[in-house]
Known about the structure:
The structure holds 2 protein chains of 2 kinds. By secondary structure, chain A is of the alpha+beta class. Chain A contains 11 helices and 14 strands. A 6-stranded mixed β-sheet of chain A has the order 9-14-12-13-10-11, covered by helices on one side. In chain A, strands 2-3-1-8 form a 4-stranded antiparallel β-sheet, with helices on both faces. A two-stranded antiparallel sheet of chain A has the order 4-5. The interface of A and B includes residues 173, 174, 177 and 256 of A.
Amino acid sequence: MKKKYCYFLIWGNGIQYSEKIINQIRNDKNFKIVLIKYHEVEDINKFVKQIYSVDYAPLSHLKAKIKYLLNSNPQVMIIFAINKNHQEKIFGEGGFRHIECEYVKNFKENIRNKFNPIKNGIRTHEHVIHASDSEYQADYLLKKLGYIDGIKHLSKKPNSILPTPYHLKPFDKFVIKKIDIDSIYCNVIYGNKKDFALKKTDLVNTPHYKCLNGDTLSYEKYIKSFSGYILTDDHYPENYKLLEKDFLYLDKKNQLNYIIIKEFQLNNYLILDGVHRASILKKQGYKKIIVAIIKD
Amino acid sequence: MKYSEKINLNNFFNAIQKEDYVIIKLSNDFPNYFKGNDLDIFCENINLVAKKILFIGNDYINKHNFIVEINKTNNHHCYIDFIFEDELELRFDLYDKLPDYQNLKLKNNLFGTILKNKIKKQKPNCLIYVPSLTEELILRYIEFLEWFDKRPDKIKHLNFILENASTPTTKEKFLTELHNYVKPYNNKNEVKIRKKQRLFNKIIKNKIKETLIKISNSFKLIKKLTRNFIEVILEILFKSKKNELKRDGIKKFVLKKLKLKNDHN
């Protein structure tokens, strides 16, 4: 099966269902969410034009179809995902003949059936969701959102030896050693979606650690508050609980999946990747853990 | 001097057994080593080999408090240091291309040939790969030439060559292959001159580019000034309203005014 990047864009009229829609994408084994981005649109007319400028149908044809969007909330939620079941097929006829992934198309229709407004008992064409037909469109939208490398941004490997998330800065020098777990801190976001600050916090005071000790609400609130804004990875409580269950750090399948940190003060470290795992290890009672420390 | 016993090299080389690699300039002591030694490894894929070294390294970090330092100096070289109590215990130097030598220029295909002609060597507890004798002799000769004036201990490579290229056939094969892969000596002055030439060319190119941009900007300015001048003259000539000319454009404006004049006449 071919793997390709795709995106789902929840329009302003569907934002209220975004959690449910994201859940549906997440629960589909063929999709792996890689980036969630909330976007406040300055000029909805211009944005809609940009989105449809790379569509198979000419904008003039779509004008009537997308009229409702011009009056909708000027905010969108975009979910970029790896589609593990890319099924390219030819759809449409004549001038509208185009290649599209059948799986994404059906998935999108399914969501529209569920969440599109219903008038007189009939599902309207006021779509709550738009999806990419091809990887090119995902690349195009990422670039429009400011990720100048497009889909290359999502497949970036900051280090060729260690498995690392794409959003870390590239690094070539690192040290692997065992350190005191209490010397590790992480950046926790305080404030709200628009006005926030990062604060170095010790593990026991993070929402992540608190969640493992029964305070699930703090964690849920934290994720909900910042997901799509400063938190663009797909974190959610259920997955965290699954991770915690039988978690074995650096087991055979994940021998090089070190928690990645950086020294910010002598013998004090900041987690760049692995707050969830570090919290679990703290809960499991580890005093010292093996980490990868990035060196400048 | 006593061998160090902190690291069991057999574990590491058993782990990379399936990789395409050779240990070059291998010491006869192997798998024994002295504290601070390094192992030079040529391999097809440094990332894969590095990963496997780290798999084994985890045990040393976890159980024996080793620190492992990894530094990828460029896309073709990476070293992995095993440090114990702040002192270097052992270094793995991994290359997937011939290193750059200062005193010699080598043809790139030597690296591939070394891997292609590698030979198995069975050690008591592990199987390792080393270069064929001819390529080993070439590498040691290069190493000797590179370092003999700074590191007297590199005489060991010359001794190795003298000991192992003892038969006329080996000697001939060694020399033929050596001449095949070694490019002539780099004349350092020549290199400097070439560098200067390149720099000079670059500067000239940039100067030309800058001048062309300046000329083009001047043309644009002249064009704009001329247009403004013509517009002012025309406005005075035809006593037109403000912005009328700008709105209509020169051609349309003149035609309109001439037509008006003709009609009037």
